[in-house]
Write a structure and sequence with these properties.
Blueprint: H1 3-29, E1 39-44, E2 47-52, E3 62-67, H2 73-81, E4 83-85, H3 88-98
Antiparallel strand pairs: 1-2, 1-4, 2-3
Length: 100
């Protein structure tokens, strides 16, 4: 086999190897972005409150009679950070999960 053919085969091999490696890591980058949050759920003086996503420092839209001290610790920590909520259906589902 000539040196030229070996060089071409080596280039194709390296190209195939690099494409294979690329596809190993590419699916992480192709994941769809989560929908933008419409609301944030937060702890407000021991109760769950919903805030608009565009101005989380504003007054809450509503405060629910869901007491955070009764929730699991991981939920309380998430609420202290702010739980993003994509839409009304997701908001209702989360509130039901918290015990509304």
């Amino acid at each position: 086999m000539s040196a030229f053919r070996r060089m071409i085969l080596l280039i194709f091999f390296l190209l195939a190897l690099s494409v294979s490696i690329l596809f190993l890591f590419l699916p992480d980058y192709l994941q769809p972005l989560p929908p933008a949050a419409a609301y944030y759920l937060r702890d407000l003086h021991g109760r769950v409150a919903v805030y608009p996503a565009d101005s989380p420092a504003a007054e809450p839209l509503q405060v629910y009679d869901i007491y955070t001290r009764l929730l699991p610790e991981e939920d309380v920590l998430a609420l202290q950070q702010g739980v993003p909520v994509a839409d009304d259906a997701s908001l209702q589902r989360l509130l039901e999960d918290y015990g509304l």
